[in-house]
Write a structure and sequence with these properties.
The complex is a heterodimer of chains A (327) and B (172).
Chain A (H helix, E strand, L loop, with lengths): L2 E5 L3 E6 L2 E6 L4 E4 L4 E6 L3 E2 L2 H9 L3 E5 L5 E5 L8 H12 L1 H25 L5 H16 L3 H22 L17 H22 L19 H24 L8 E4 L2 E4 L1 H16 L1 E3 L6 E3 H16 L13
Parallel strand pairs in A: 1-5, 2-6, 5-7
Antiparallel strand pairs in A: 2-3, 3-4, 7-8, 9-10, 11-12
Helix pairs in contact in A: 2-3, 3-4, 3-5, 3-7, 4-5, 6-7, 6-9, 7-8
Chain B lengths: L4 H4 L3 H9 L1 H8 L9 H12 L7 E5 L3 E6 L3 E6 L5 H17 L5 E6 L4 E5 L3 H18 L19 H5 L5
The chains are: A alpha/beta (327), B alpha+beta (172).
């Protein structure tokens, strides 16, 4: 079972013989077990060389880079081994046919709303009206004929959802409005940070399948992003990221000390990121007994299963039904 | 009519899958592979790498098509984890023998079940030749289908690298 490794300090990542070492700026050496790595996330300033990259590629290990504020800058992906032109051609067909594209886009939004409502019902005191409003709005998803209308519905639902954060979060943490670029308060900072972790996780799962990450359905395929990653993230953001935020804040694990504010930009500092990531990794590793597989499945694996269901949909095997968490 | 192998030749693994599961064969033939995610396949690979280390001719690639585990003077050998899939393993090896035969190379086959410390010898007969030809025609036909063969639950599905792929569904 492979897992992700996170490096926060500055230093050098290198291969010596058949071992990967991380040497930090104080010359402390740490070995990383190559067979167990899925992805290495680099938050510090790290030197590395092509010898290391070649070695990581052999094992299909990805390297993700984050900037000073902890925002995702990019990933090194080894050469893709499992390619299926047949799948990609059919994936593209589902984009080009507007009806087909709309079906998939609606599925993503509906699953996201299902998980949003699930979160809200767990903390329902004082937000009953917002829940009702979202339920009413959700009914329109089915009727909608266009992606931009669908995006509009989604936007209004999210607005009500974020409004409810002020009631769900039991402390001085609050959110006035979702602000992405840049986040200006701790809650927005956590949402942004969590969402970017989710995006990289989804991409690393897509990468293990035959799907093409650039062909998306809800988000417009664009040149800047692997937008299928954004699409699938919609399903998992409320299920994973938001529940982590609620639990970190309500159990008073995270405090104002875990954030820095720099010229109006609020971001998690190293201590805060560590807390968030350890909770994030714990959550992704949590398993649920799958009703059809009759097998324990981790949250991370649920992301991969979503990819599998999409492939089956594209190749005409089985209609895609998005995940709707039943637990 | 003479059977023209050139028209029907495939990788050995497809012959194996043909006898295990037609759906798996179809998916594999479309590049939808799951093997790299499977621990069991990883174990098979390790067993392969760690057995018969003294033999020189391991992993021989013939005609850019067949990847033969071990080739020695009289035998073509195939290494397997367990003897559960006897028929499929046997036919894969018979296909190798058939293929080599068509190139004018006569060999016998040996399947090595390393963990069970057991081996089985196989010879290419006319009956086997006909069976392989029929399978190859079928394999071509299945691979050309536009949709995968429908899911059939087999007793060994849970051991398959495609298990999660095939059975990931929602209850609706």
């Amino acid at each position: 079972m492979s897992r992700d490794f996170y490096i926060f300090s500055n230093g050098r990542l290198k291969r010596k013989d058949n071992t990967i070492y991380f040497i930090d700026c104080l010359e402390n050496k740490r070995t990383l077990p190559v067979e167990q790595i899925n992805c290495i996330h680099l938050f510090g300033e790290i030197d590395l060389n092509s010898k290391l990259i070649n070695y990581l590629s052999q094992y299909g290990i990805m390297l993700s880079f984050y900037n000073y504020y902890g925002y995702y800058s990019g990933t090194y992906y080894p050469r893709k081994k499992n390619v299926s032109g047949f799948t990609v051609v059919n994936q593209a067909n589902h984009y080009n046919d507007y009806e087909k594209r709309l079906y998939i886009a609606k599925s993503f939004v509906d699953s996201a709303v299902h998980h949003i409502l699930k979160n809200m019902r767990r903390h329902k005191e004082g937000i009953e009206d917002l829940i009702e409003r979202i339920q009413a709005e959700r009914k329109n998803i089915e009727k909608v004929q266009r992606i931009d209308e669908l995006m509009g519905i989604e936007g209004r639902i999210r607005k009500s959802y974020y409004k409810s954060f002020n009631k769900i979060l039991k402390s001085d943490f609050g959110i006035e409005k979702r602000k992405k670029r840049p986040p200006t308060d701790p809650v927005n900072a956590m949402i942004s940070f969590g969402n970017s972790l989710m995006y990289t996780t989804v991409l690393s799962e897509i990468y293990k399948t035959q799907l093409d990450p650039t062909i998306s359905f809800l988000h417009e395929p664009s040149v800047k992003r692997f937008s299928l990653g954004l699409d699938i993230s919609e399903i998992f953001k409320p299920l994973v990221v938001d529940t982590i935020i609620f639990s970190l804040v309500n159990n008073r694990v995270i405090t104002f000390d875990d954030f820095d504010i720099d010229e109006g930009i609020c971001y998690l500092n190293e201590k805060g990121r560590k807390k968030f990531i350890s909770e994030y990794e714990r959550k992704l590793g949590t398993t649920i007994k799958h009703r059809k597989l009759k097998r324990k499945v981790s949250y991370r694996m649920f992301i991969r299963l979503e990819c599998y269901k999409l492939i089956k949909h594209f190749i005409g095997d089985e209609e895609y039904k998005p995940l709707k968490a039943w637990w | 009519m003479e059977f023209d192998l050139n028209n029907f030749k495939v990788q050995g693994v497809k012959v194996n899958y043909y006898y295990i599961c037609k759906r798996k064969l179809w998916l594999y033939s479309k590049g939808i592979t799951m093997e790299q995610n499977s621990d069991r396949v990883m174990i098979g690979k390790l067993i392969h790498e760690n057995s018969y280390k003294r033999l020189k001719k391991k992993e021989v690639l013939i005609d850019d098509m067949l990847k033969i585990d071990i080739l020695d003077n009289d035998y073509v050998r195939e290494v397997k984890i367990s003897s559960k899939m006897t028929k499929a393993d046997k036919m894969q090896l018979i296909y190798y023998l058939y293929y080599l035969d068509s190139l004018g190379i006569k060999k016998k086959g040996l399947i090595n079940y390393v963990k069970e410390k057991r081996q089985e010898e196989i010879e290419l007969t006319d009956e086997y030749k006909r069976e392989i030809e029929k399978a190859l025609i079928d394999i071509k036909e299945i691979s050309q289908k536009r949709k995968p063969p429908e899911l059939v639950k087999l007793p060994y599905c849970t051991k398959c690298a495609y298990y999660e792929f095939c059975f990931a569904k929602e209850e609706v």
